[in-house]
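#struct-help
A.M.: can someone run this one for me? Single chain, 532 residues.
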Amino acid sequence: MTGISSINVLTLNPSPLVGNQPAGVQSVATTAAVSAPAATVILGQTNVVEINTYNARGALPNAALQPAWESSPLDKVSFTMGGNFSSSSNSNASRFAGLGAALLSQLADGKKNISQSVIQQSGSKPLNAAELAAAQAKLHGSNADSTISLTLKTASGKTVTLSLSNQDDGMAVQAQVEGGDLTTEESAALEKMAKGFQSAIDGLTAEPPQLKLDALTQFDSKVFSSVDLSTKLKLGDNSVQTLEFHADNQKRSVNMSGPSGDLQLSVDLKSQAILGNASQQAKALQSYLKQIDAAAARGHADRDLMSMFKDAFSSLNSNYPATRATSTPATVDPLAPTNLDRKLLSGLADFSASMTQTSQSSNPMRPSERDTFAYNVSQTTRLTGSDPQNRSIKQDQQSSLTASYHQALSGGQKLKLSTNAESQNYLFYQVDDQASSQTNIGYKDGELTNASVTQSASQTTHISKYVMGHLVSQTSTPVNTSKTQSFLNVLEQALHPETADKTSSGVARLKETLDGLQDKVLLDSYPKKLNS
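D.P.: on it. Structure tokens below:
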């Protein structure tokens, strides 16, 4: 034992439970007590012994006040919260990391009611019972800086709700099941959704934010009847970003608002009869995404906002509920399009989608010249008539774009507008575009009487040129085109194959023509391309 002059003896406070708190965890009105050391070891009579006693949370008696927990933090959700809360970052991305999945999994594991919060205390003394209760109530309510809530309604009538909240000094979660205990099938479906729920949270809290909603649109419709996600997130610049998402078997919608702009999207799933097969749907979706990209490039849209718009558009217009195939004859719409009719339809469900960018004044010398971007695109389908032999189909697709932006005179220059006349060398663009595609199909007494598509596109570009702050020229360039095509003969050949060319080459040509009809129906916003 020679050579050892002192020993630090670290002892864990074996204090008993206080209320429902584990050892060393502060309850509503009681701090963790520090007891005398359980044992002292002394080696040799002349040695100096330093004894430091730690409480069960590993803190010294004179350390800063420890976080106050609402209940015993001994479950998976609390462990996740504790790890996130101890992180050096209090951002939503750090605080909510893995927490949504843990909460949904714990609920699926048989917990019917979950409520937990953790609050970092400040000052020289712990919060009293009333102060702590008020702080917990704020965290669990809508007044917290950032909140996320998920509501699931089951086909059996139960309601599952989850909420997560975060602010600088605390975070909280709640989850409950109303209407009875979850069945084994419902619990399994909840567990399956955990990863997708977390993916949506991770996307929304990322920088820049993303809309990862695929898993929420692909819920098991045999188990759940609807899914709702609502979020309010405080961003780094103290602005707020909100989202409302809804999905059921008849409708899907997204409404998002933030500092960079607003998004609104809605998909009508009530008319399953107009949907094309998977190949048609995929082709139409890609065509629309290309139209959106073209609009973004032409109008100089905010890249991050447009990325979220495309994410939402793809999620809402993919993986439609497969109900048409299981419909009974009694529920099939007598005016429903046939497989042949669908060759002249887009293949997608009816929808409306719009994006409006926050207007900005980037030129201090001319504040009325604002940078703007507004885009909307939609599809509506109407089925009318008295019976399958006498009916008509009209499908309208349309898009519009209005935008304005500043650009340097030379492509290689960086534009930095100021009140200095020497900075006022630029082009101010104003864009106004419209496009439409209309399909008309008609039957009378069982005979096809109309099968036509009318498409139009117009683009107007107005450019104001400024040199040293003086307007030197203005040009306006309108381009437009319109055309109508009839496909009556093609569809007639398919309806009456006995009149068509029965040779192998003739059959192949007819099939190729029919398969290519969708390309002649889809929206195209470029007049020159439409003409070609």
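A.M.: thanks! The radius of gyration is 32 Å.
D.P.: also worth noting: The CA atoms of residues 278 and 347 lie 9 Å apart.
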